[in-house]
Specification:
Blueprint (H helix, E strand, L loop, with lengths): L1 E2 L14 H13 L9 H11 L16 H7 L6 H33 L8 H24 L9 H9 L1 H8 L5 H26 L5 H33 L7 E2 L1
Antiparallel strand pairs: 1-2
The structure holds fe (ii) ion (2 copies).
One fe (ii) ion binds next to α4 and α5.
């Protein structure tokens, strides 16, 4: 069984073949790029499309909001109710993705076990449960506000796309528990920041109970982050010490 830090058949570096690399450098000098211009052309295409009045998505029309929403959200001015519902939609999507990601981490754990200083099964399960609870909390808040939690909001879409890479890392059969935790660090950092923003924009609702629930979720996210950071540090030390308990590469 080989660890990924074991020297293997990695041929991606140019130094693998000094003769070919010299030829490659010469070739690159002789052969100009197949198209003219520099990366400013890419920027101008991005700018061109960005200027079009086309968004990732839209919010459901306010008319679909039930009566309760008007009372609950009345405290918020202007576009703020829609902004809040968009952020809630985003959190809903991310917490759902988060709970699935942690389920994936659990599967890695069950297949490979942990490493020195790494997570226990109970710890992973606890985070998974808390992410699921956050998802259900947000869904019920959206319902209470009279909106539809099944509607995909623009920010839910943005975050869904952004987290695609995390899902790929966690579900890749070649990644181990430590690799999956690297992806979860990105997820938990986002979780922490996003709850801060959500708490900020929810202040205007003047709902103490809701605020307490959000603060409890925020505190849970802070714990998740501390745990993942500790495990990642431990995984690096475990690898450096040659502890390959969970560092198996196929
Ligand atoms: Fe969460
Ligand atoms: Fe979390």
């Amino acid at each position: 069984m080989k660890a990924e830090t074991t020297a293997g058949m990695n041929r991606t570096g140019m130094d693998m073949s000094p003769m070919d690399s010299k030829e490659l450098v010469v070739g690159a000098r002789i052969m100009p790029p197949s198209s003219a211009g520099d990366d400013s052309a890419i920027a101008s295409v991005i700018a061109h499309y960005a200027r079009r009045e086309e968004r990732v998505g839209t919010m459901p029309p306010p008319g679909t909001l039930k009566g309760a929403v008007k009372t609950a959200l009345q405290a918020l001015k202007g576009e703020a109710p829609l902004v809040l519902l968009d952020k809630l939609g985003e959190r809903l999507a991310f917490e759902r993705a988060g709970s699935r990601l942690w389920k994936g981490v659990l599967a890695k754990f069950d297949a490979l076990g942990s490493f020195e200083g790494g997570p226990t099964r109970e710890e992973i399960e606890l985070i998974y449960r808390e992410e699921s609870e956050h998802f259900l909390l947000i869904a019920s808040v959206i319902r209470t506000l009279g909106a539809d939690p099944t509607a995909e909001t623009p920010l839910a879409d943005v975050h869904g796309v952004a987290s695609c890479g995390l899902i790929k890392v966690v579900t890749d059969p070649r990644t181990n528990l430590a690799d999956a935790l690297e992806a979860m660090l990105i997820a938990e950092l986002t979780d922490n920041d996003a709850w801060d923003v959500l708490i900020d924009i929810s202040q205007g609702l003047n709902d103490e109970e809701l605020m307490n629930q959000f603060m409890a979720a925020r505190a849970a996210e802070a714990r998740h982050l501390t745990m993942v950071r500790t495990w990642i540090k431990a995984s690096v030390i475990a690898r450096a010490n040659g502890d390959h308990a969970n560092m198996v590469a196929s």
